[in-house]
Amino acid sequence: MDQKKLFKTIDTIASGNFNEDAELLKYVIDQIVSKEQFNVSGGRVWKLEPSIQAYRLLFQTGKVQKIPKDYKLFIKDYVIFDKISSVRTILADETDATLIAKGIFKYSASGVGKKININGKKYYEYLIAINSDQIGDDLRYTLNVIATVLTSKLRERYLTLSRNNLIENIDKAKELQRSILPEHEYKFHFYDIFGVTIPAENVAGDFYDYLKIGDDEERLGIVVGDAASKGLAAAAEAMYISGAIRMASNFQIKISPMMFRLNQLVNKIFSDDKFVSLFYGEISTDKKGLFLYANAGQNPPIFYSKKNNSFTYLHPTGPLLGPAPNSKYETDSINFHKGDILVIYSDGVVESANDKYEFYDEKRLEKIIKKTANFTPKEIVYSILDDVTKFTTSDSKYQDDKTLVVIKRND
Known about the structure:
- The model has no long low-confidence stretch (mean pLDDT 83).
- The longest helix has 44 residues, at 137-180.
- By secondary structure, the protein is α+β, with helices and mostly antiparallel strands.
- It has ten helices and 17 strands.
- The strands form three sheets. It has a six-stranded antiparallel β-sheet. The protein has a six-stranded antiparallel β-sheet with strand order 7-8-17-16-13-14. Strands 9-10-11-12-15 form a five-stranded antiparallel β-sheet, covered by helices on one side.
- Strand 9 (206-213) and strand 10 (219-227) form a beta hairpin.
- It has helices at 3-13, 21-34, 80-87, 97-101, 137-180, 231-250, 255-269, 347-350, 361-371, 377-391; strands at 42-49, 54-62, 72-74, 89-93, 106-118, 121-131, 185-188, 191-198, 206-213, 219-227, 276-284, 290-296, 302-305, 310-313, 332-335, 341-345, 402-409.
């Protein structure tokens, strides 16, 4: 049969919907054996069992003497198996006594599927072997085409399953992250708060949280963090840190010791190339508007004083969490008065870029804060995001997770 035509024929046969690899392989071999044009009287499929370093008989079909069910061919007894990895298809004399007793004096075998490493050597996941009256080059060519098509179909299955699993995992991660993130809007005594996280991908490495501290609920912790990198790994790191801070808040640990312990934890648990930037602050029922905070390498939040029409940046009081153990974190403070606004943000806001590779930057952020100073925190957040969107090129390579939390004193 013409090889191109053969390829299309096998491809058509193998294009159905199959629940398992074995179901696909069995169907194709059955079809090949049943069609006279292939001149094949029987076929077998063997599956590699790495734990015992052997190929186990998966199934057999056709008018041939049957080999015992689950019969195994050990790699150590078939040196020629090493050759299959490089040439894919071999024709050889049978050496196994049981198979010879079944009238199999020559065999044709071809590797199918992915390759698996065993003791530094790679072997195909499956072997297909067929019986024919004409064991020669034509059969080798036929087997090569069959093996090529089946490997392609199996790869499609692997990719589909991987994609489906990834989508399922991402959906679970998104749902878990949604369940952990607090409600956007929050009221605490004299303060209105609004926060939002917009992932650059499906899930975010950014996070924010509102933490009630103590049974009397006289203090509220506000945290904004950013795990380095993006995607699922960053989201997992973010959720880990968020959970650790929630637990710490239950013990009412002072801010500086809490940051110290968080740094030790990240340094110990995360790999050397991972770190977290984090801003943590506390508002309270204090009428003077005392706001205590520590900043571990996070973008400096911008504090807008309405009375003075001025901006103050809450710069880092310690290094990023993770890289350097035993680092110290200072606690600093500001005071909120009526109408004052604090904007806490991640780098995805100010580092959004336009088509000229210009960053949005803090000065543009200041202008929007001043322009919206009489708005609610929710209106301020969405005004900022709208302005960033208008400024940013949609296909910019500099897109990152965006998190904004706005705190405003209203009494």
